């Protein structure tokens, strides 16, 4: 991973209150606002072209070594995933663990009372940090994700900035297939 994406404490000016997570997809950074003009900055991988989004959400739940349930759309785009999936309690997916693309921890983002199907999660592919690679989720190294997971609380506000070409969260939601959370 490029060392410029390593976690660090930085000066950060924002109107958002301490505790808010701000994602800047164009710079590939996530900021956990600390207040007093400071933040913890993490390098992230973000949505590939056509999967970039912006908007506000709330952390609805948190999971350690979560199971992964790819959307029907993702399975159509990447049929090579299907042989790695098994029937789990909530549908076709991959059991949580080191081989799982969701990584060590996940924060589940909701808008109002609806699951956005976007996550902030770890990755077992740290070389993708600093790139546009995902289907819209925000990914951190497993080490950084564990750090963020330990700091962020359920109910935390998440703001994903518009990077030009981003789809607003409300209009992005219907295009994704709903799957139950564990």
Q: What order do the SSEs take from the amino end to the carboxyl end, as H and E?
A: EEEEEEHEEEEEEHEEH
Helix-strand category: mainly beta
How much of the residues is beta strand, in percent?
A: 35-45%
End-to-end distance: 31 Å
**Helix percentage:** 10-25%
Pick out the low-confidence regions.
170-182
**Helix run count:** 3
CATH class of one domain: Mainly Beta
Radius of gyration: 15 Å
Q: Any idea what the CATH architecture of one domain is? A: Beta Barrel
- The total strand number stands at 14
Shape assignment? globular
Q: Determine the mean pLDDT.
A: 86
User: The CATH topology of one domain is what?
Assistant: L,D-transpeptidase catalytic domain-like
Q: Could you walk me through the main structural features you see in this protein, from its secondary elements to its overall organization?
A:
- With 182 residues, the chain is mostly beta strands.
- It has helices at 72-77, 142-151, 169-172, and strands at residues 8-11, 21-24, 29-35, 38-43, 46-47, 53-64, 86-88, 91-93, 105-111, 114-121, 132-134, 138-139, 157-160, 167-168.
- The protein has a domain at 3-66 and 102-163: Beta Barrel (L,D-transpeptidase catalytic domain-like).
- It contains three helices and 14 strands.
- Strands 1, 2, 3, 4, 6, 9, 10, 12, 13 and 14 form a ten-stranded mixed β-sheet that branches.
- A hairpin with a 4-residue loop joins β2 (21-24) and β3 (29-35).
């Amino acid at each position: 991973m490029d060392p410029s994406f390593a976690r660090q404490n930085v000066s950060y000016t924002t109107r958002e209150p301490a505790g808010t997570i701000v994602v800047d997809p164009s710079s590939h950074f996530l900021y956990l606002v600390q207040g007093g003009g400071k933040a913890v900055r993490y390098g992230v991988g973000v949505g590939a072209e056509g999967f970039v989004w912006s908007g506000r959400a709330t952390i609805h739940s948190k999971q350690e070594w979560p199971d992964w349930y790819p959307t029907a759309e993702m399975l159509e785009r990447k049929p090579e995933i299907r042989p790695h999936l098994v029937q789990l309690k909530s549908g076709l997916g991959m059991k949580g663990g080191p081989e799982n693309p969701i990584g060590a921890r996940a924060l589940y983002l909701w808008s109002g009372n609806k699951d956005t199907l976007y996550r902030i999660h770890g990755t077992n592919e740290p070389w993708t940090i600093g790139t546009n690679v995902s289907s819209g989720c925000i990914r951190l190294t497993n080490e950084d994700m564990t750090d963020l997971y330990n700091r962020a609380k359920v109910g935390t506000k998440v703001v994903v900035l518009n990077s030009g070409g981003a789809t607003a969260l409300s209009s992005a939601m219907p295009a994704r297939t709903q799957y139950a959370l564990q």
